[in-house]
Design a protein that fits this description.
Blueprint lengths: L1 H16 L7 H9 L4 E8 L3 H16 L5 E7 L5 H13 L4 E4 L8 H9 L3 E5 L5 H7 L5 E3 L2 H13 L7 E6 L5 H16 L3 E7 L4 H14 L3 E6 L2 H13 L7 E3 L5 H8 L6 E3 L2 H17 L8 E2 L3 E3 L1 H4 L2
Parallel strand pairs: 1-2, 1-3, 3-4, 4-5, 5-11, 6-7, 6-8, 8-9
Antiparallel strand pairs: 10-12
Helix pairs in contact: 3-12, 4-5, 7-8, 9-10
Family: Belongs to the bacterial solute-binding protein 2 family.
Main location: other
InterPro entries: Peripla_BP_I (IPR028082), SBP_2_dom (IPR025997)
């Protein structure tokens, strides 16, 4: 018995000296068998209901298709934390993912990190906010954009608003981040609708997609321009901030507010008459569309890289009641 123990100790000592680790046959077999592609979903602020809904939709899709791919979900603390999102791209690339599906916080700042990921053979799919076309062309990159026509969606919201105003009325716009393509597109859609209807845009400022910032900016707008009859917010978080601002200056009864994203809080506000309309870009499915595009490109690496336009629909009290 002592001889057996001594031999066992000798073997263990030799193994330790050689740097051996104890193997787990079950885990090793599982890892070897699990050759499914690994996809990283990198979003903007998970504090924004739109992106938490997007994350839930992606997670449910992966669970329903667990035999096809693995999913890692990431987000940043707020819409302006661009450096953290760049770091997430680098971390996901270093972890060995096969594809990155990203809703970039900035249309330009993420391009260099994504270029390096693509050089490592990682498939990249852009959702929600389009990456800067000129930068992609300059870098010689082809990245498919999967998402809605933000300008058309915002213009539809603006046209509905115009039908509730009188020609010559004053309006204001709460913009998203000015370096984000979707913010620029939504602003352009709002402007096109207002100018076509003969409205007067008396103020247009960025509230950086954030509710608290929108409250602050909208309060200032309404104080400086009491003639404002409506506020067009480039996302629903900012529309909620505009509601708070309107209440604080006693304009909650007559000020018209529209948004974009169709989050649950704004649906409630529409039913309560606090918001006139929003645009639904189907956040619960947007990441899913991007994941499906990534899987397609992983299956067919030589496939043509093409954009995919996804639905965007007008939401009003009438559509919610159906």
């Amino acid at each position: 018995m002592k001889r057996y123990v001594s031999l066992l100790n000798l073997v263990l000592f030799a193994c330790a000296a050689a740097g051996c680790t104890q193997a787990n046959p079950t885990n090793s077999a599982a890892e070897a068998a699990d050759d499914k592609p690994k996809i990283a979903l990198i979003m903007k602020s998970l504090a924004n209901e739109f992106f938490s809904t997007m994350a839930d939709g992606a997670t449910q899709h992966q669970q329903a298709n667990a035999d096809q791919y693995n999913l890692v979900v990431n987000g940043i603390k707020d819409e302006r934390d661009i450096s953290r999102q760049v770091a997430l791209v680098q971390e996901m690339a270093a972890s060995g993912v096969d594809a990155i599906v990203i809703a970039p916080a900035d249309s330009q700042a993420l391009v260099p990190a994504l270029r390096r990921a693509m050089q490592e053979g990682i498939v990249v799919v852009n959702i929600d906010n389009r990456l800067d076309h000129e930068m992609l062309t300059k870098e010689g990159l082809e990245v498919p954009f999967v998402g809605p026509d933000n300008q058309a969606g915002a213009q539809a919201v603006g046209e509905l608003l115009a039908g509730n105003l009188t020609r010559g009325d004053a309006v204001a716009i709460l913009e998203g981040l000015q370096t984000s393509e979707n913010g620029q597109a939504r602003k352009a859609g709002f402007e096109a609708a207002m100018l076509a209807a003969g409205m007067k845009i008396v103020d247009s400022q960025s509230a950086q997609w954030e509710m608290s910032k929108a409250n602050e900016v909208a309060s200032s707008m309404l104080s400086e321009h009491p003639e404002i009859k409506a506020i067009l917010a480039a996302n629903d978080n900012m529309a909620m901030g505009a509601i708070a601002a309107a209440k604080s200056v006693g304009r909650h009864e007559d000020l018209l507010i529209v948004g974009f994203d169709n989050i649950a809080a704004v649906q409630d506000a529409i039913r309560a008459g606090k918001v006139l309309a929003t645009a639904d870009q189907h956040g619960d499915q947007l990441a899913v569309y991007g994941i499906e595009k990534a899987l397609e490109l992983l299956r067919e690496p030589t496939a043509i890289v093409a954009d995919v336009e996804t639905p965007v629909d007008l939401v009003t009290v009438d559509t919610l009641s159906k």
